[in-house]
């Protein structure tokens, strides 16, 4: 398994950003080939949590109407087979909360999300935690001088668990809010300029920790959107 860090500069748009549905619906696209923008910042992948108000299944996809108290958005998840449907929709039902990761799309002038990952949410704390993260990230973009850290010279507010492209001046500041092992993992991976990322065995060896500790830390970083899987099914 290979992992990769969210980067600034050329790869800055390959981020996973926590958002509310209101933010999704207010997203702008300067022209049809441009990246979508929220708070004036390019976004690639978005993460949101809401309850399923409606769901309909066809031979090729599942359509969900998701609401989070700030609005509603249509979300589509594409299916390859009947077995694929059973696996992807397991545990998901109407009026239940779900966590979704996907990309913004527009078809026939209607905005929707193409989902790449959907999973049930069983803990209400996760819902509130997500809303706080979405707010923290949004504020860090709108007010980059918060906490005395000037834009481009010190990073985003420490409350932001997600990488804020272009707002940090160096990895030391960007990862200062992380526990020591997670910070070391991010510094190792961010130092490698390779689209395939870094194999976890390499990360573990350089960290000097046990494989279980490193893997647990990597999973935490993925859950926060700092890492994502690449060629062996991991990157960020």
TrEMBL record:
Q: Has UniProt tagged this entry with the keyword Isomerase?
A: no
> Replication protein A C-terminal domain: which residues?
156-233
Q: Please list the GO biological process terms of this entry.
A: DNA replication; double-strand break repair via homologous recombination; nucleotide-excision repair
Q: Which UniProt keywords apply?
A: DNA replication, DNA-binding, Nucleus
A molecular function (GO) held by this record is:
single-stranded DNA binding
Q: Which domain of life is it from?
A: Eukaryota
- Compartments where found: Nucleus
Q: Name one GO cellular component term.
A: chromosome, telomeric region
Entry's family note: Belongs to the replication factor A protein 2 family.
Q: What is the protein's given name?
A: Replication protein A C-terminal domain-containing protein
Its source organism is Trichosporon asahii var. asahii (strain ATCC 90039 / CBS 2479 / JCM 2466 / KCTC 7840 / NBRC 103889/ NCYC 2677 / UAMH 7654) (Yeast)
């Amino acid at each position: 398994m290979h992992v990769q860090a969210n980067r600034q500069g050329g790869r800055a748009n390959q981020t996973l950003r926590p958002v509310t549905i209101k933010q999704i619906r207010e997203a702008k696209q300067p022209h049809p080939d441009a990246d979508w923008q929220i708070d004036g910042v390019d976004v690639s992948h978005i993460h949101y949590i809401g309850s399923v108000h409606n769901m309909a299944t066809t031979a090729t996809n599942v359509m969900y109407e998701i609401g989070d108290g700030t609005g509603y958005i249509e979300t589509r998840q594409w299916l390859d087979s009947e077995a694929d449907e059973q696996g992807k929709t397991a545990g998901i039902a109407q009026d239940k909360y779900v966590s979704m990761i996907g990309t913004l799309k527009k078809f026939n002038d209607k905005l929707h999300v193409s989902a790449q990952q959907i999973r049930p949410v069983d803990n209400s704390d996760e819902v509130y935690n997500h809303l706080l993260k979405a707010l923290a990230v949004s504020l860090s973009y709108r007010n980059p001088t918060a906490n005395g850290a000037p834009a481009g010279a010190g990073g985003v507010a420490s409350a932001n668990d997600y990488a804020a492209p272009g707002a940090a001046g160096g990895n030391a500041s960007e990862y200062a809010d992380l526990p020591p092992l997670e910070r070391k993992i991010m510094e190792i991976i961010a130092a490698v300029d390779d689209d395939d990322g870094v194999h976890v065995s390499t990360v573990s060896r350089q960290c000097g920790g046990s494989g279980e500790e490193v893997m647990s830390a990597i999973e935490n970083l993925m859950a926060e959107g700092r890492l994502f899987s690449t060629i062996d099914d991991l990157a960020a």
